[in-house]
Write a structure and sequence with these properties.
By secondary structure, the protein is an alpha/beta fold. It has two domains: 1-43, no CATH class; 46-242, Rossmann fold. It is 34% helix and 14% strand. Helix 4 packs across helix 7. The longest helix has 16 residues, at 3-18.
Length: 250
């Protein structure tokens, strides 16, 4: 972590000691613990039903069967996805606060809320999986100083007792930010973006990838492909939120 970021983190800790904790969404005072009030948590938008059996998005038709128009183009290696909420207010504010503002105190509560979808993925294996955080682009990891997906994976381990995979899955530097791209461009941009470190044995248990947001599935597909290429098995990806189709995402 850079010196300015270390100083900033130290300053934030001092402020936490001097000021009462506030809800990350509405800024009202909350008791010590997760910086999220009960009212705002009750407003987190659940994914409407019926849901696709493979990717968990709201199904557009009862005839969709085991997959829908969103995940039909996913590589076969990305078997499934499970998310807790829609990427919409106020859930998007929690993701933004954790990822871009360094509100890492949100991660344990967000992970607790991800336990139910994580257990849905694990049910397909019949045994306890291992959790692997989706890695960050190396440049972004250095700039941010932490990986929000790793914090969520740590929280899920604390809640479930499932082991946590440290090391192994590596992200290559990508030249274009995923957030700036459309659906087809995201998939192309992420081709071969992840690989498994040959010096790390592949997990002997099935793997669940952990991330904060699911948009097109491109990042998760790259991670799943790396795990499978190394001889492991990926059950899918669990995220705190997922985006649903929008007119501006092709």
């Amino acid at each position: 972590m850079s010196l300015p970021r270390m100083l900033g983190a130290a300053g934030a800790q001092i402020l936490d000691l001097l000021l009462p904790p506030a809800c990350a969404v509405c800024r009202t005072t909350v008791p010590p613990g997760p910086p999220l009030c009960g009212v705002c948590e009750s407003l987190l938008p659940e994914i409407p039903r019926p849901r696709c059996a493979r990717c968990g998005a709201t199904s557009t038709s009862p005839l969709d069967g085991e997959r829908c128009a969103i995940c039909d183009s996913w590589p076969e290696g990305l078997r499934a996805a499970a998310s807790r909420f829609v990427y919409a207010p106020p859930a998007d504010m929690l993701v933004t606060g954790l990822k871009y503002h360094g509100w890492t105190a949100l991660a344990p509560r967000m992970a607790e809320l991800m336990v139910e979808p994580a257990r849905r993925l694990a049910a397909a294996a019949g045994l306890a999986p291992v959790l692997a955080a989706v890695p960050l682009d190396p440049r972004r990891a250095r700039r941010r100083g932490f990986n929000q997906s790793a914090l969520l994976a740590d929280g899920l381990t604390a809640c479930t007792g499932w082991p946590r995979q440290t090391g192994g899955l590596v992200r290559r530097r990508t030249h274009r930010r995923q957030a700036e791209l459309g659906r087809a461009e995201r998939l192309e941009n992420m081709l071969a973006a992840c690989y498994w470190d040959p010096g790390v044995p592949a997990p002997s248990r099935p793997v669940i990838l952990v991330d904060d947001v699911l948009t097109t599935g491109a990042t998760a597909a790259a991670g799943a492909a790396a795990i499978e290429a190394a001889g492991g098995r990926c059950l899918g990806v669990v995220t705190f939120v997922r985006s649903l189709p929008r007119p501006d995402v092709d």
